[in-house]
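Hi everyone,

Forwarding the result from last night's run.
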Amino acid sequence: MALSKAKSKVPMDRLNKYLAHAGVGSRRHCESLIRAGRVSIDGEVVTDLATRVAPEQEVHLDGEPVHAEKFVYWLVNKPRGYLCTNHDPAGRPLAIDIVPHISQRVYTVGRLDEDSEGLLLLTNDGELANRLMHPRYGVEKSYLALVAGIPSPEDLRKLLEGVYLAEGHVKARYVKRLRKQGDSTWLRIVLAEGKNREIRRMLAKLGHKVLRLRRIAIGTVDIGSLQPRKSRLLTPRELKALQKLAAKVP
């Protein structure tokens, strides 16, 4: 029986991807389960990692049925003090704590550090998440940053031209000075890369500490009036726009 040649004309997922979407674990972990002979399709044990699964086929792990989860896409307004991880040994609050009503196992699309706030996407669609955050696809992320001091036009030019961090040369796609707040300044910054604490580190190079950092948009999806610690489903229009961005060939 050629398991990888299912009868359905519906696009088929690789077995490890199917298992991961069902919440079994990461794709790498699922690959180890397949190699160990613990997975079967339509009653036949499968060890070939190239095997694909059609919707009408029955998948079992250790004799128990496995059902792929429906993809879900949630927008969350993360407050400061929350972590973008699914587990913290210290018991600190997590972004996923904001959405306990979601039955699917979801992950954050990219990360905001503990001191940052704003828009997060939570989904179990790993492929879309990867494309939205991978630098090669150039999906823009928009931020508001309150920085110490008053960045000069030269500082803003350097952000656009780029500065050197440990990972190499990084730069903003767009920077605009919005308004002063006492001895500090609000900036709007757009990135298309998303390295760890990139905005904080870029501005530190220029002598301006980031006092607050809030992500307000990913692509065309804007946080709007969503309040901190609140969540909502992406609209079909928002999801379609993100999928279109993620489908662009670099």
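Residues 1-10 have pLDDT under 50 and may be disordered.

Cheers,
N.
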